[in-house]
Write a structure and sequence with these properties.
The protein is of the alpha/beta class. The protein has 12 helices and 7 strands. The protein is elongated, with a radius of gyration of 32 Å.
Length: 298
């Protein structure tokens, strides 16, 4: 038997020395001598270990193995507090390292980021359409609590005129105008919906006489994506059957783009336009004790 045949079986077909010897009716020692002469002992050992791992992996039932390991770990954790503490600490550290690795790749590898986003969308859409996992109706309360925790943990570095923590300067400016005009507002008012995360939150909800204002502020530089979310909110707000105005305040640069994507009943302002518009809107409300402003906003 030629060495080339032995090498091909060992390196390409990943057969071990016993399988090669049996296939070609030669002794195992003869096969090993061929391989050792060609590869050297160190390289032979390394490749043999790799081949063994590959063969083992092919024969594994990973679902069954996963359940076996999971049951074993749970059993040990239930019986041994020290083991439980160490396991949780190990898992926590591993999770931190994994998240750090993913963040690094997302920030530095465009191909990885695109694949990540694509797979996330597929997985999220699949679970949403099938109402499974995260989107299972029985998990509605968990989704709501998780979403609220997320909002609470997000960086609110700006203090509003009523002492509330806000996300950015645009919210602060809008709040300042409302306070100056003596328009009472509720910041991030939540409306229970029973869908999605279980609620919508409005940046500013105001009641002035018999008129309501739903005011959303945004710097988001992806107007089409953000507008889809705002249009869903608008549809819900409208279902409340309130006498209301629906307003989005954004930057002068983004205003036109948002106007193109938002429902035509939503008024889109830059901040300066909002300041002038709401002053004009409330004057007839005050004069008529709450009647709608037939003159419009602008």
């Amino acid at each position: 038997m030629e060495k080339e045949v032995v090498l091909r079986e060992f390196l390409e077909n990943r057969l071990n020395s016993t399988d090669i010897a049996s296939k070609y009716n030669v002794s195992k020692k003869e096969v090993l001598d061929y391989l050792r002469d060609e590869l050297g002992s160190t390289k032979l050992k390394r490749i043999a270990q790799s081949n063994a791992a590959i063969k083992t992996n092919k024969n594994l039932d990973y679902v069954k193995l996963g359940k076996t390991i999971s049951n074993s770990v749970r059993s040990k954790m239930a019986k041994d507090d020290s083991y439980s503490i160490q396991w949780k600490l190990k898992a926590k550290n591993a999770s931190k390292l994994a998240r750090k690795k993913v963040r690094t790749l997302l920030n530095n590898n465009a191909e990885f980021k695109q694949n990540w986003l694509t797979n996330c969308r597929k997985g999220g859409l699949s679970t949403f359409n099938n109402q499974k996992g995260f989107w299972d109706p029985k998990n509605l309360d968990k989704r709501r609590r998780g979403s609220l925790r997320g909002i609470k943990n997000m960086g609110k570095m700006v203090i509003g005129p009523l002492g509330e923590k806000m996300y950015n300067g645009l919210e602060l400016e809008v709040a300042g105008v409302l306070k100056k005009l003596n328009i009472n507002y509720e910041y991030e008012k939540r409306f229970i919906t029973g869908k999605g995360n279980g609620y919508f939150s409005c940046d500013f909800f105001c009641e002035f006489f018999e008129r309501c204002f739903f005011i959303e502020t945004t710097y988001w530089d992806k107007p089409e994506e953000k507008s889809n979310k705002l249009n869903k909110k608008f549809k819900f707000y409208k279902s409340l059957n309130l006498s209301a105005d629906f307003i989005v305040v954004t930057t002068e640069i983004l205003k036109e783009k948002y106007s193109n994507y938002l429902d035509e009943e939503i008024v889109v302002f830059s901040f300066d336009e909002f300041k002038k518009g709401i002053e004009k809107a409330i004057k007839p409300l005050i004069a008529r004790g709450g009647g709608p402003n037939s003159e419009g906003w602008i």
